[in-house]
Amino acid sequence: MSKGAKLAYRPIGLVAGIAAGAVSGAVFKQVWKLVSDEEDAPSALQSEYPIWEIIVAAALQGAIFAATKAAIDRIGADTFTKLTGAWPGD
């Protein structure tokens, strides 16, 4: 792909990253409610939670973010390719 096409994709990739953060945050919040019956996940500095619960929450949040980001990135790349005929990666 040409350098110009990669440059043209950058704003789309940026918006996709922001969208992935917002979507994954909302999905994680709902999943955490189902798993723990609590409104919010514990943070690392909350002493009332055991370390295993903090680690599970962080791992789950990371996995949801990674999967959501990959899906949104791929949809963005596919859409860009359909519109321009050029794949934004590789």
Based on the model shown, name its key terms.
2 helices; 90 residues; 0% strand; mainly alpha
Q: How would you portray this structure in words?
A:
The chain has 90 residues and is mostly helical. The protein has one domain. It is built from 2 helices and no strands. Helix 1 (3-36) packs antiparallel against helix 2 (51-84). The longest helix is centred in the N-terminal third of the chain and has 34 residues, at 3-36.
Summarize the structure.
The protein is mostly helical and 90 residues long.
Largest sheet: none
Number of helices: 2
User: What's the total number of strands?
Assistant: 0
Q: Quaternary arrangement of the chains shown?
A: single chain
Spatial extent as radius of gyration: 17 Å
Are there runs of 5+ residues with pLDDT below 50, and where?
A: none
**N- to C-terminal separation?**
8 Å
Helix content range:
over 70%
